[in-house]
Hints:
The complex is a heterotrimer of chains A (134), B (296) and C (257). Chain A is an all-alpha fold.
Amino acid sequence: MTIAIGANGQSGALLRRVEALSGQRLAQCYQCGTCAAGCPFATAMDVLPDRLIRHLLFDMPGVLEREAFWVCVGCELCAQRCPRGIDVPRVMEALRLIALRTRGDQLPVAQITAVALENLPPIALVASLRRQTG
Amino acid sequence: MQLAYYPGCTIKVSAREHERAALAILRELGIALREMPEWNCCGVVHTLTGENLIRQMAPLRVLARLRQQGEREAVTLCDMCFNTLARANHLARTQPDQVSALNATSGGGLDYDGAGEVLHLLHLLRDRVGLAAIRKRVRRPLRDLVVYPYYGCKLLRPTGIGLDDPEMPTLLRDLMESLGATVVEGSLQTQCCGAYLAVDRAGLVTERVGATVEQARDAGAGAIVLSCPLCHFNFATLQPHAGAPLPVLYYTQAIGLAFGLDPAELGLDDRQMEALGRAVPSQALHDLAHARGGSA
Amino acid sequence: MSEPATLVTMELMGKEYRVPSGLTILAAIEYAGYKLVRGVGCRGGFCGACPTLYRREGSHRIFTALACQTLVEDGMCLVQMPFVPVPTKPYDLHGITPQPTTLLRFFPEIAGCVACNTCTRACPQGLPVMDYIQAALRGDIERVAMLSFDCIACGICSSRCPADIKHYAVGLLARRIYGKYLVPPSEDLAVRVSAIEAGRYDAELRKLMELPLADLRARYEQRNFETVAEQHRDHSATQRYNSPMDPVDYQDELEGV
Ligand code: SF4
Ligand code: SF4
Ligand code: SF4
Ligand code: SF4
Ligand code: FES
């Protein structure tokens, strides 16, 4: 497989869209890995936040098929700690939004079980729907 | 003192005891809360892109209604509500044109000038009432209670919205110490519990809650004290099953116990009081549980 | 009508018609030559079968109305919505134990409400639709029942909601639960039902049924209402809610007679 790697700052359409939606300049990231090191859910991510940023910068295929940005709950620990001032959860939100707009709901309401619905507080449902449905 | 009160949905569903305890301790402190006569869900999570403006309608509507109801300040008990409302308020102050645009497309109900103020109950207790006044009102110091204060995310982050230092918060520690409790701390106090992942990735929540509970236990804690109804739900229902669960208290309930209020009024039933008593050989708590058993 | 009606132009499903002003939308459609076999029922604003979607000249907005209750306007561009699909998961009312999460269990999509207020603005009954959906989200079944009391299930709200919420079905379930489990039992009702069952009114009813139609109509027109003030009830749940059309208040009907 050949992967075309663009130079920083002039990569593909997805990078531009993510930067526009998130208001972040991803070329600022110097790959220190602080975000991944502190993320409480890193173990459940198929690609760590710093890697995800790299994938976007290099226009790697398959970014939108990743699970990582659905696992991110936007706890903002990484945003608090990033030495380059990158708001990683905004990047994650931008990816979620693009995926929702192009592919539809990540967690269709009909898939939530009756038992879950009886027990969950509204706060969990509202948040989940806001992050995982269009 | 009387203040407008924005409860938020979950306070009315799974966190009623938090509300009961809050109203009870505020009564003791001479403060009355007036629930807003009409309110809507705040939307829980702040939208993180500038483009998704429709997601700002819910929190802005709460703020607009507050002003329409002739109020300036509203108190809330929920960390998520507080965070979302405060951030929408920031949007209204820094980008009023966006609010006007929303208002123009939605029939005029969102006419909001940014002049409202959202207070977390912890603001009120720390900055208006003051910890000294709370200490003075303590009747039954929680002497033998060892607590692990858990902050989670939305009380602290982002800077500028949060109530305390995001990395080294002291707010809950100071509050618990003023009740006479012993405080133990650890690195996971400020880490997210998994929040709404409870809906479709509950395993991750159990893992985070489990790690935090273990850290608390290792430090000698007999209970976890926290503020957010979603954290409470996760800690109370998704704790890994290994022996008896570590009791989870809202800080309002801890204050109420220290004030010597009836546990029933704080939404604590006999089973929870027993669990607390088992975790803590506290004479004061034992007396309370006993007194309640006798009077019931 | 004494003066001859002027003609106005309405555009029905893309075709222009000249119709007399002063007609309801429903009558105007029939005047234009259509025979309505769906999307019409009571013609009195009660059945909810006749929702209209229209635009006006000089506004970009979509407006909604009941065709039987709204006069046709010059420049109206309209279509009838004979049906708004609102399928509901089957439920057995006897098997429900009312809880704060009950409405969410049957209608989880209410958690997606963005509080845009579109439903309230669209409701021809003037109900605070968003507020009853919000009350449903926080499990306040009584409030949902009260605020949605005058809903006629026209479905207009559900056709306009960005969160695809099935408003009137939510309100209906709330009212059913409220009626079955939450409303304080009425002693008077039990007394009256047992009296009916014991046959106390049989003779009176038989007499009424034998009356010629004209007499029956005359009696109907002379009927009396018991007003709220006369009821002297300590508890009337509905009085605590400010629905624009209070279900207990028949005053407007009284003034009409
Ligand atoms: S912490 Fe910031 S600079 Fe470091 S890898 Fe993450 S995004 Fe890049
Ligand atoms: S905001 Fe997302 S990526 Fe960052 S630490 Fe929290 S869960 Fe991990
Ligand atoms: S609430 Fe909805 S269905 Fe009921 S009358 Fe209003 S618009 Fe029609
Ligand atoms: S139209 Fe739908 S999303 Fe908007 S306020 Fe009504 S129920 Fe909520
Ligand atoms: S025909 Fe029944 S409401 Fe219009």
